[in-house]
């Protein structure tokens, strides 16, 4: 851990985008000011730990819900997934023997 000493009004730079300024020192308490892009999240440690705990709980709940919901999704059997028998012109209305998509007369005459 890097340890630095600063007085009131002095600052510390972190990279190009973040500046930490010592605002006030009173007893054992230090007030700090932060200048950073809005895209950078800045939290007190105890708040950050709560956020981590809530995210872990939400992730576990989402996983449990997805698992529970999957029990209600109907699953196709192997017979439903694989068509049985060869395809014929009667099935499709097309002449599959010539590899074309010309429509044939699928009527059966006796």
From TrEMBL:
Show the taxonomic lineage: Bacteria, Bacillati, Actinomycetota, Actinomycetes, Geodermatophilales
**Can you provide one Gene Ontology molecular function annotated for this UniProt record?**
mRNA 5'-UTR binding
Recorded hits in Gene3D superfamilies, A to Z, give: Translational regulator CsrA
Species of the source: Goekera deserti
UniProt-annotated location(s): Cytoplasm
Tell me which NCBIfam families the record gives.
Answer: csrA (TIGR00202), PRK01712.1 (NF002469)
Return the Pfam families for the record: CsrA (PF02599)
Protein name as annotated: Translational regulator CsrA
Q: What does this protein do?
A: A translational regulator that binds mRNA to regulate translation initiation and/or mRNA stability. Usually binds in the 5'-UTR at or near the Shine-Dalgarno sequence preventing ribosome-binding, thus repressing translation. Its main target seems to be the major flagellin gene, while its function is anatagonized by FliW.
Record region (Disordered): 83-110
Xref: SUPFAM superfamilies? CsrA-like
Q: Where is the composition biased (Polar residues)?
A: 98-110
Describe the protein's quaternary organization and the partners it interacts with: Homodimer; the beta-strands of each monomer intercalate to form a hydrophobic core, while the alpha-helices form wings that extend away from the core.
Glycoprotein among the record's keywords? no
The record's section on InterPro entries has: CsrA, CsrA_sf
So what family is this one in? Belongs to the CsrA/RsmA family.
Query: Which keywords, in A-to-Z order, does the entry hold?
Result: Bacterial flagellum biogenesis, Cytoplasm, Repressor, RNA-binding, Translation regulation
Which GO annotations describe the biological process of this protein? bacterial-type flagellum organization; mRNA catabolic process; negative regulation of translational initiation; regulation of bacterial-type flagellum assembly; regulation of carbohydrate metabolic process
Record-level GO cellular component terms: cytosol
The record, for HAMAP family, names: CsrA (MF_00167)
